[in-house]
Amino acid sequence: MRLALPDAIDFGRRLLRAQQVPDDIALDVAEHLAESDRVGYTSHGLSILASYRNMLAQGWARADGRPEQVADQHTLLAFDGHHGLGQHVGKRVIQAAIDRAQQHGQCIVTLRRSHHLGRMGYYGEMAARSGLILLAFTNVTNREPTVAPYGGRKAMLTTNPLCFAGPLPDGRPPFILDMATSGIAANKARVLATNGQQAPPGSLIDADGLPTNDPNVMFATPPGALLPFGAHKGYALALVAELLAGALSGGGTIQPEHPRQGAATNNLFAILLDPQKGFDSGWLTHEVGAFIDYLHSCPPQPGFDSVEYPGEYEERNRRLNGESVRFDVPIWATLTELAGSLGVALPHPAANEPA
């Protein structure tokens, strides 16, 4: 099924409005999710609304939750998300930090108690479009751990993503690194299981601690666990994200004194910088452009078309999809079921797409 992008956004908005989400919040969330689908991250796209329904129904995510600024020290801002839907909370918080960084050249921002922030690259793109560099760390609380520590056989951590983003010169797509510190994201395991696909080697263990490629172990009783990417290196970065985002935001870490009710609650620590303030901008522009040209000059390995930098994947998918979004059959079936249960009419397929 392929939908025109405005129709995909409107569909997501209506699914949320049917659950008493205010219109402006629903629109922020739907825009974020549909764009995630468009740039190739189905795991963080509209299909995730099926799991959000339970979070809203249980009160673990607040339909009307909005961020509150709790500290302002000029280049340091702190927010409480009040368990609001993260794609709305995150957008408003990062925009406030962008505004402050454009005034002062830099801003540190923390956020505690947000529901799932979604694809962190979305916020990286916001910063890059504003001419800023973003470095962000996120941890996850209020749910059972999903990631085993290096050398461990039981999940004790979560996926703890990090994001680095910034503009590039000469009209190049922005640099967007958005990665879980686990080998794959938990939502990626969900999509793989839904589609009947295998997980990459080295990304999962079963409940006995044995390597497996079957993503269904994450939903078994007892469950398996994701593994950190890069063995001890990804594990160490996960701990950095846990402490920066969890401790410095005041939102807490995954340690067991805090509740684990099954709701993904995110805390955030981020730094935004204006590279045009305090730097030799002419030299910087040349150096960054020359470095990207140097990377692109590398001959590709067999099986690869070219060497790319992070961010080109998203831009390629934007060009491929244009102003539309495509859903695989299992994903569309999930959305169809959700719409039916909420009494929401399905959108018409995009032109030249069979119904």
Helix content: 25-40%
Radius of gyration: 20 Å
- Helix segment count? 10
Number of strand segments: 12
What CATH calls the topology of one domain is Hypothetical Oxidoreductase Yiak, Chain: A, domain 1
Structural class: alpha+beta
Determine the CATH superfamily of one domain: Malate/L-lactate/L-sulpholactate dehydrogenase, four-helix barrel
Are there runs of 5+ residues with pLDDT below 50, and where? Answer: none
**Name of the CATH first level of one domain:** Mainly Alpha
The assigned CATH architecture of one domain is Orthogonal Bundle
What keywords describe this structure?
355 residues, alpha+beta, Hypothetical Oxidoreductase Yiak, Chain: A, domain 1, seven-stranded mixed beta sheet, three-stranded antiparallel beta sheet, 12 strands
Task: Explain how this protein is built.
Helix content is 37%, strand content 17%. With 355 residues, it is α+β, with helices and mostly antiparallel strands. The protein has a 7-stranded mixed beta sheet, sandwiched between helices. Helix 4 (86-104) links the parallel strand 3 and strand 4 (106-115). Helix 1 crosses helix 2 (23-38) and helix 2 (23-38) crosses helix 4 (86-104). The chain is globular.
Question: In a few lines, what is going on in this structure?
Answer:
The protein is of the alpha+beta class and 355 residues long.
How do the strands and helices of this protein lay out in sequence?
Layout: E1 2-4, H1 5-17, H2 23-38, H3 49-58, E2 68-72, E3 76-80, H4 86-104, E4 106-115, H5 121-129, E5 133-141, E6 162-166, E7 175-179, H6 186-194, E8 204-205, E9 211-212, E10 225-226, H7 232-248, E11 265-273, H8 281-296, H9 312-321, E12 324-326, H10 329-342
Parallel strand pairs: 3-4
Antiparallel strand pairs: 1-12, 2-3, 4-11, 5-6, 5-11, 6-7, 8-9, 8-10
